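Quick one: Histidine phosphatase family protein from Streptomyces endophytica, structure tokens please.
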Amino acid sequence: MNGTKRASGRRIVLWRHGQTAWNLERRFQGSTDIELTDTGLTQARRSARLLAALRPDAIIASDLRRAAATASELAALTRLDVTHDAALRETYAGSWQGLTHEEILARYGEQYTAWKRGEPVRRGGGELETEVADRAAPVVLNHADKLPENGTLVVVSHGGTIRTTIGRLLGLEAHHWEGLGGLSNCCWSVLGEGARGWRLLEHNAGTLPEPVLGDDV
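--- reply ---
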């Protein structure tokens, strides 16, 4: 931070958007701009009521409609402005986008298997996971650096982008990122600031974070 003293006790809540029709159909959305379903909007409203209790200091979000609409529910409760940033969009996956899981396996089975093994793969000719982290993680860190002591940043984004961002912030090697697992619609993960950097406090949570008792904290 250019020699300045970093605020301590900060939290980053990485919140996945609500359900879309393509989620139900198991279609790879990527950067395609798909809206929330009515269920997705209901999910966003429920989750927003929970997250508002954390009294966030800032909200940033992908500019894709499914993330922006999710973020707006929290903004309405907290009266915070949402900063939208295209760098928080989901992974661009080229020819995979719009295909179902089964269609991807049928057409790009070898590429899919290599990706699942942790190899650097341009799925559908799109972005590498490391490139997604290269664009998203600096945006998250930049906004986290502006938090007050014990402040909370909510990042509203997409499953793949959240996973790669968490992996980068935790300092994990890219081939280990898949081990974090996915996020359900409108669930979130929480990173907390520790003595040696960011650490994962909650993953794929749908309830408010609870203090860790009896651990090495």
